[in-house]
Design brief:
Rossmann fold; six-stranded mixed β-sheet; ER; fatty acid biosynthesis; globular; alpha/beta; six-stranded parallel β-sheet; 2 domains; Quinone Oxidoreductase, Chain A, domain 1; 12 helices
């Protein structure tokens, strides 16, 4: 079987390699053996491979944080799951591998009619979007939220979930050709980033009072997004796609009573019960099954082509998945 790992921190496409591992063997009590179907390459994976993530694994380290798999074998004492079911990899398991033996606790059979490629992206981005929309500001129908990177996987999920909630969205993008694409997904307003962003947002939303902003870019784009908030608003930062710091002035936060919060899904999992995590995952799974949440996939690669897959993903052009085989 194959496993993708890193032996050093650095440029992801240089430090990644595919190695061979023995079969994990039969499952023990409370365990199942699963065969990976699809597993995405997320921006956070690339950050980890550079050694810049919130946790730094011991090397050599297997990589991959989420994925969907078929149950191949069931150990004693496992209930609610049968051979052939699709399940998520459990949180904390590495996922860029052919076959794994994992604990069955907290796993559930995924909707049989759902697209497995979409299910493979269930664990990270859609819950991030859902939780940021529901846990910081008490939004109600008709309210507005603004976000950077509206075409990202999280951004698309924000648009879809907000529409389901009756919340209006302003999505900021870098390329004008993305405007119509996101509007077809349900985005209310899509604007290209720029220094006059706050003025254009006010015009496009009829001076709506925006209390929540979501940012995954950081760097120089953080302040223009902050400027779009109404007094007392909250900016939730959940990524650093820009790769560097940017200006963030204290005065607006003092005089306009603005709040800056950081969101990291791992922290949320650590602070909440397994039952709550399962509830969120099942909700997201239902939205994937009915087509509410959909992320375009640009390409899939076998595990044996890990360097090519990582190089493609690092370009940021679209979602890249590893597939079985």
């Amino acid at each position: 079987m194959h496993n993708v790992q890193i032996n050093a921190f650095g440029k992801p496409w240089e430090v990644v390699e595919t190695v061979s591992l023995p079969d994990p063997g039969a499952p023990g009590a409370g365990e199942i053996v699963v065969d990976m179907e699809f597993s995405p390459i997320n921006p956070s994976d690339l950050v980890l491979m550079r050694g810049l993530y919130g946790v730094k694994p011991n090397l050599p380290a297997p990589v991959g944080a989420e994925g969907v798999a078929r149950v191949a074998k069931i150990g004693s004492g496992v209930t609610g799951i049968k051979e052939g079911d699709r399940v998520l990899f459990p949180r904390g398991a590495s996922t860029w591998l052919t076959r794994a033996k994992v604990k069955a606790d907290g796993l559930f059979a995924l909707p049989a009619n759902a697209d497995p490629q979409q299910l493979s992206m269930l664990m990270v981005n859609p819950p991030t979007a859902y939780l940021m929309l529901t846990e910081y500001v008490a939004l109600k129908k008709g309210d507005w939220v603004i976000q950077s990177a509206g075409n990202s996987a999280v951004g698309r999920a924000v648009i879809a979930i907000a529409k389901k909630m009756g919340i209006h969205t302003v999505s900021v993008v870098r390329r004008p050709e993305l405007i119509e694409e996101l509007k077809k997904l349900g985005a209310d307003v899509v604007l290209v980033e720029g220094p006059d962003l706050a003025k254009r947002v006010r015009e496009a939303t009829d001076k709506a009072k925006i209390m929540l902003a979501l940012d995954s870019v950081g760097g120089p784009g953080l302040m223009p997004l902050n400027d779009c908030l109404a007094n007392g608003g909250t900016l939730v930062a959940y990524g650093v796609m820009s790769g560097g710091p940017g200006p963030f002035f204290t005065a607006p936060n003092i005089f306009r009573d603005l709040t800056l919060k950081g969101f990291w899904l791992l922290n949320w999992f650590n602070k909440n019960s397994p039952e709550r995590a399962l509830e969120v995952q099942k909700q997201v799974a239902s939205w994937i099954a009915d087509g509410t949440i959909y992320t375009p996939v640009e390409a899939t690669y076998p595990l044996t082509e890990s360097k090519a897959a990582i190089s493609h993903a690092a370009k940021g052009a679209g979602k890249i998945l590893f597939k079985d085989g």
